[in-house]
Design goal:
alpha+beta, single chain, 5 strands, Nuclear Transport Factor 2, Chain: A, globular, 4 helices
Length: 126
């Protein structure tokens, strides 16, 4: 899961495509994903919960990023399947109650939500 986040930060859609199976890979638009990943500034990944049951694994995470000077959080519960020693992304679900993608407001002179200690305008708000 962390390797897929890293691949998004580097806009490595070949890796993203290689680590998908099933419906996720059938509906994957590498060109659109590449454009989105390149335009985004990736801030941090929070793994909230991970569990494994045999050949299936589930990871709940929040990916923080900025796009066009707005901060976003992508919150998802991802399903992975183990096949010949490799984990593959199968699907992702939006957790109940929370939104999957939300904007975080931060004033230009407020501390950056990424935790750097810098002002937003000097950090993720660039």
């Amino acid at each position: 899961m962390r390797s897929r986040y890293t691949a998004y930060t580097q806009a490595d859609m070949d890796y993203i495509a290689r680590t998908m199976r099933g419906a996720a890979s059938e509906h994957f638009d590498a060109e659109s994903a590449h454009k989105w990943a390149k335009r985004s500034r990736w801030i941090k990944l929070e793994v909230l919960h991970a569990s494994m049951d045999g050949q299936k694994g589930f990871v709940e995470f929040r990916a923080h990023y900025s796009l066009a000077n707005k901060l976003y959080v992508l919150h998802e519960i991802s399903e992975f399947h183990l096949d010949q020693g490799e984990w593959y992304y199968i699907d992702g679900q939006t957790p109940p109650v929370d939104s999957a993608k939300k904007t975080i407001s931060a004033g230009r002179n407020e501390p950056c939500p990424c935790g750097s200690g810098k002002k937003f305008k000097k950090c993720c708000g660039k």
